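Morning!

As promised:
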Amino acid sequence: MLIALILVPAAAGLLAFFIRRDDLRRALLLATAIAHTAMTAIAVFGRVPVAPMEGWLAMDAVGLLFLAITSTLFLCAALYAVGYLAREIRDEHRDIEEGLLFANAPEAVFTGCLLLFLSTMTLVTVSQHFGLLWVGVEGTTLATAPLIYFHHHHRSLEAAWKYLLICSIGIAIALLGNFFLAVAATRESGMPDPLVVQALLQHAARLNVPWLQAAFLCLLVGYGTKMGLAPMHTWLPDAHSEAPSVVSALLSGALLNCAFLGILRVQQVMEAAGQALFGRQLLVGFGLVSLGFAAAFILRQPDYKRMLAYSSVEHMGILALGVGLAGAGTFGAMLHSINHSLSKAMLFLVAGNILAAYRTKSASEVHGVTRTLPVSGTLWVAGFLAITGSPPFGTFLSEFTILRAALDQHRPGVAIMYLGLLGLIFVGMASITLKMAQGPASKHAKEPLFSILPPAVLAIPVLVLGVYIPPPLSRALQEIAHTLGGS
Amino acid sequence: MNAWNDSVLVFLVLTNFILLGSRRPAARIRLTAIQGLLLGILTILVHADDVRLRTLLLALGSTFVKAGVFPWLLRRAVRETDVRRGVEPFVGYTLSVLMGMALLGLSIWMSSRLPLPPSQAGSLVVPVSFFSVFAGLLLVVSRKTALSQVLGYLVLENGVYTFGIALAYEQQLMVELGILLDLLVGVFVMGIIIFHISREFDHIEVHRLATLKDDHS
Amino acid sequence: MNVAAFLHIAVAMILAPFLLGVINRTKAIFAGRTGQPLLQVYYDLLKLLRKGAVYSRTTTWVFRAGPIVGLAALLTALLLVPFGAQRAPLAFEGDVILFAGLFAVLRFFTVIAALDTGSAFEGMGASREVQFSALAEPALLLGLAALAPLTGSFSLSGMLAGITAHTWLRTGPALALVVAVLLVVFLTENARIPVDDPNTHLELTMIHEVMVLDHSGPDLAFILYGSALKLWTLGVLLVGILLPVQTGPWLDVVLRLAGMIVLAVVTGIIESTMARLRLTHVPQFLAGAGVLSVLALLLALR
């Protein structure tokens, strides 16, 4: 079934390039999304037989978690996308910022690339072989570049070029890291297939240390570029502000997590090999730097989509920080990945609604969202509270868990910086989003069902997780924290 | 056999230096093609004592892709733009060559810190692969045209590939083909985007693509 | 000292102008001309020696000393260079540096003699000459230094004697790079295309020619002969690395003479087939040679 999870969207994606009728294609998109979610649900609630392909593909707890997030997000995004595409055909294509006319990429390209994106992300989550994981991550880059360039104008072209080049270079460095890992493995033990995670974990004690450290560094920098850790994050704001909101939602909510998975796997190996401290310190460092960059650029950010992009950088930093603190920190980070993905995706979809209604990306020109678009406005404010870690939303709990982990490990400096930067980001985002939300209604706009149902669906779990974590989920997260090292 | 390996690797280093100092875009594309050919030869040479079918397949495949497909793609992508006149890069050509020398020294120092398996001790492979990676990064960072940046990316990939075939060889063929396929599609997509850039902007100087930035004025 | 070594010096002093003739004849053949007689340079030297020198009123003793000091430096350098497996008459450990230093003395005195005339024209040529030599000298030194780890000797004689066919097999790439560097330095120092055109006196294209514009009579003869000696000296180094044969002494000499003539023909071919580099590209060309020499050194030190 794991192979089906990968191949079904891939086949659907390739098919979508050839289907001529729009409604047929959109139906295919929805059908594939539903099928994928169904299969994922079976994997989550049933017990899936593991290890086809000699243990290259397997479902472990971490992979399952990220796969579930991806699948849910994709379903909501597909629902939103169907309406979005229908609207894009109707509306005139006049550029919002500069008033020039532009064309869109063919819708077949959009739908096909979206499905291929799902397929490659699934490959990343189920892959237990570093080489296969790499192929998946590179595949996601290639599938998303045309998506960013959906609106054919020069700014999105610039964004797509930066994205493609920076991420490709990062992933090439990650490939070098893969090779270093292989050398670390074959030097001592002569393993037959040195890049399978299980084999590496078994022989961890005999891995060659300098090569292993070099491998970790390359993989951290390489996959960190894809994940959006500073200072390799420079493609993120541009790509998110120019891509359609649906694409941004998936990029922030699903793709960044999958890139993080690559780093998690190598950290697992490092823990098993006794090099845990090396890895953790680097992760904490990158995490704090990302928080710093995000804070610096969120303050007085004029463009609200870029603000959300920098918020993604911030949360990736929190994830890295959490895993770097290990133990309870890892638990918090895994919980946080769920919360962040859901809230960020919701925020991007709502931002798409705001963009469609107000036709401006500048935050200072948007007023009275809560009155013009009641549901979107409420979700916007709720999303702001969620993403900045306010109770009663789930993000508060996850960020607090990470804070407690820092204090428990007697690292007050880290804790103070973490809190301080989170506070700065709260202030920055508050001044932007609340100004947008309040005020008199300036326009009259409709809120079609497709634009409010998916975000609302995404908001509910975030709220629920703030007060109650279902025991199965809690057990699963603890299991993940344990396997990733330290408990 | 070691002398033959060393010769090919020295040629590889020389092509990198010439790339850093070359002024004409057409010459740069040809140099990356030559690099692809050299890497194909190196693939066979490094494993000359047990030549298997997959070695031949890999060598032929990568040579075909890197020396045949990529130059063709890139030449088509820039056909419409006026790239005959080179734009002076951020870091001048002579300075790039001198920085290349410094990077070569850095690569040799770095590789001396990593313990090599005895079969490869004293080989040039690790320093040369690191040098290619650095040279590729230098090209991407210091050049102004999109074409040069793609060529820098290719040089970087060549460096990674050099390391791979020499030291990390025990992988399944499928993974290596997957890597090659990704590379192929990647350059294909890049070529398409360069084509779009040249059509949209009438030039491919990426440093002039500076509309998206964060200046809070 | 060795009689055979001095014999080699005598051969060098007699045959050096002949090489210039070979180069000129090769270029003529490529151009479809009949060209000068092979011994033309000898005739020129004799003619110049018989003439009287004319000295400008703006010059001082420096101008008169230039050619003489230059010739003396070159003759000393000739004494350092081994021919075949024979040790050079003045060989000692570290004579590589003295070798480069002697060329520097030659260059220095040529340049100040040119500046002494007070002519802007020669000053311009002097500045170009110094710039290019500043780039070529590190290439020469590093290239020769790369030979030291390979042969275990810091003396030119030891280096050339230490290179055998086995050395080529073992460290081929490094030696090939050194040969490339030496070829570039050879072309640069002897003012050959692609660095400089020995035939023109136009402002745009010349470097060496302008500096000797004001010399006449015996001074010019010394300069002409000196350039032949420079050609021979650097050529012997090149041929010595390229022909690592160590057979009996007389066969060695014949082989190396043949090698020198082949080198002269090759120079003529290079001059006929290539165009001169743009003046602004010459530093890049020389920097490339510098890079090659560093590469050779890194390879040799491994």
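Residues 154-188 of chain A form the longest helix (35 residues).

Hope this helps with the figure draft.
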